[in-house]
Structure formats: structure tokens, C-alpha cells
């Protein structure tokens, strides 16, 4: 599939004004860049209808994984929930980058939200990243105010990959099986795909994707398949999956291949390919019609999975 020459009209102005589009010159493995992109702010104040707090969840090695909890203030004995993993190539990103999306999901879906500040590469091996996320998922499912049968895993970019990874671990381990894996423009593979070498994609380049993959692999040949969900040989028996794929994104083709493999494995899949849309489009232009449409589709899929 070739790169689209057409851009979504609603994104055109935002693309010119956004700092996202300047990342093509950035070395995403540079320590100074990573430190700035991991910066944390104070816990946001609660807003009307949503109580916001932070706590720590014990990982298997005893480390306290910080999570930010978004809880609807209206009374309910148990609610559906989502566990959200931030993007940033498994190497940067923070709770702050996902705050608007969490507010949107909690308000629109009436769900308890848990946003996970997992440890990142290259500080820890890939297994530790997976364990932090899995620990947060299990903790969420065990909450008294959460129905464990109605827990959704979600994220964008590398966070979308982690959501797909948690679906695979849930199938294999059996104690927490997500109701839905909901991934936006996920990074599913460490192998090269045609869209990674397509010219003129903004926001991230194929070389930057290769940089973050190397950062995760750390020179190893034995990184667990679940880190890169498309590496997992057996995709049968996974939970339903919802995918939003950006048409002008180096990650496009690997996400489409993963969707095809899920369909071949008889996994229920809802796929939306958005032509003329770049990676991280919702962060670039949160008010654009394409973003609103994507979020409408996402919330509708969430509601169907948990009702």
C-alpha cells in the first residue's frame, strides 16, 4: 500500500501549527529528549463528574507502579473499567499525555479509568514493562467498584501495542481476560513493513520507529513475542479487538497485517482505516472531525463490549 497523497482537510491547519510535526528531526533515543518527554506534573484536580487520584500498584518485583485513577462520581455498585497504557515507543510518554483521553472515556463511557505509568526502556527490560502493565490490569480487575468481566485494555501507538499484549497475556494466563482490546495506530511489530519506508510521513519517521524498537530490544534476540503483538504465532482465542489505523503513518502496514491475522484466527475485529490521517492525529487536532469520529467509534465499541 502506497502513502496517501491526500490529507484530511480538518487536519491541515493543525498540522502546520503542531509541535508533533517537527519530530522528524528528533533522535527519540536521546536521553535529554526522553527525560523531557517523561516529565510528570502534579495530580490534576478532580473535575465535575470525575474524581481523580493517584496510587501505586505492586509489580511482581515489589516496585510500586504509579497509576492515575479516574472514577465517575455518580453512585454505582460496580462499573466497567479501562486500563490505559500511554504511547511513546515504550521509552517516553507519561500520564499527562493521556489525561484528555482518560477524561473523555470516563465521562462518555461511565467507566473507572486506570492510566498506567509503567517503567520504560532502556531503563528496564521488556519483560518488566509487560509485568508493570499486567500488574495494573490485575489490580484494576480486583477493585471493589469494578466488574472484572467488563475491563477493557486500551492505548495508542506503543500503548496500543501494550493493550494488544495484555489481551494475549490474558488469554495465556486466564485470571484476567479483557472484554475488549482497543488500540489506536498501534506499533505491533519489530520487523520492517512497506509503510515504514514510505516518504513524507510527518510526526514520526520509519527510522524513528526503528530507533524505539532498538531501544526496546537492547541488542537482544530473545525479546518475548508478546512485546510485539504481531510476533505472537498463535492469535486464536483472543478477546474482541478494535483498531484505528492512520493512513499516513509508518505503523500503518504492520497494524493492518495484525488485523488480518486476527481475522484469520477468528478473533472478532473492528477495523477503521482513516485515510489522509497521520500518527497521533488525535493529539495534533483533538477537535478535528476525524478525531471526534474516531472517539465516537471508540466509545461505541467500548459500550458494546461492556453492556
Automatic annotation (TrEMBL):
Stated name of the protein: Acetyl esterase/lipase
Top-level taxon: Bacteria
Residue span(s) of domain Alpha/beta hydrolase fold-3: 83-281
PANTHER family: AB HYDROLASE SUPERFAMILY PROTEIN C4A8.06C, ALPHA_BETA HYDROLASE FOLD-3 DOMAIN-CONTAINING PROTEIN-RELATED
Gene Ontology MF terms in the entry: hydrolase activity
Annotated source species: Klenkia marina
Family annotation (Gene3D superfamilies): alpha/beta hydrolase (3.40.50.1820)
Key words of the record: Hydrolase
Amino acid at each position: 500500500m502506497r502513502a496517501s497523497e491526500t490529507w484530511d482537510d480538518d487536519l491541515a491547519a493543525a498540522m502546520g501549527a503542531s509541535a508533533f510535526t517537527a519530530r522528524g528531526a528528533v533522535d527519540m533515543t536521546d536521553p535529554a529528549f526522553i527525560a523531557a518527554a517523561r516529565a510528570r506534573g502534579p495530580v490534576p484536580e478532580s473535575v465535575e463528574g470525575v474524581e481523580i487520584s493517584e496510587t501505586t500498584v505492586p509489580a511482581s518485583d515489589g516496585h510500586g507502579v504509579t497509576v492515575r485513577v479516574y472514577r465517575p462520581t455518580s453512585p454505582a455498585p460496580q462499573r466497567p473499567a479501562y486500563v490505559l497504557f500511554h504511547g511513546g515507543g515504550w521509552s517516553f510518554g507519561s500520564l499527562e499525555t493521556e489525561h484528555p483521553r482518560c477524561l473523555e472515556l470516563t465521562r462518555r463511557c461511565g467507566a473507572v479509568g486506570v492510566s498506567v505509568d509503567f517503567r520504560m526502556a532502556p531503563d528496564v527490560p521488556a519483560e518488566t514493562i509487560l509485568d508493570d502493565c499486567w500488574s495494573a490490569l490485575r489490580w484494576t480487575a480486583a477493585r471493589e467498584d469494578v466488574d472484572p468481566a467488563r475491563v477493557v485494555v486500551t492505548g495508542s501507538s506503543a500503548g496500543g501495542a501494550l493493550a494488544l499484549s495484555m489481551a494475549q497475556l490474558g488469554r495465556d494466563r486466564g485470571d484476567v481476560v479483557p472484554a475488549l482490546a482497543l488500540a489506536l495506530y498501534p506499533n505491533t511489530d519489530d520487523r520492517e513493513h512497506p509503510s515504514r519506508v514510505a516518504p513524507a510521513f510527518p510526526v514520526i519517521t520509519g527510522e524513528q520507529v526503528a530507533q524505539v524498537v532498538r531501544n526496546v530490544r537492547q541488542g537482544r534476540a530473545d525479546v518475548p513475542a508478546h512485546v510485539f503483538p504481531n510476533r505472537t504465532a498463535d492469535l486464536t482465542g483472543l478477546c474482541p479487538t478494535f483498531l484505528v489505523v492512520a493512513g499516513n503513518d509508518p505503523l500503518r502496514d504492520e497494524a493492518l497485517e495484525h488485523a488480518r491475522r486476527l481475522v484469520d484466527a477468528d478473533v472478532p475485529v473492528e477495523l477503521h482505516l482513516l485515510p489522509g490521517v497521520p500518527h497521533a492525529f488525535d493529539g495534533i487536532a483533538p477537535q478535528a472531525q476525524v478525531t471526534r469520529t474516531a472517539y465516537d467509534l471508540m466509545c461505541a465499541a467500548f459500550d458494546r463490549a461492556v453492556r
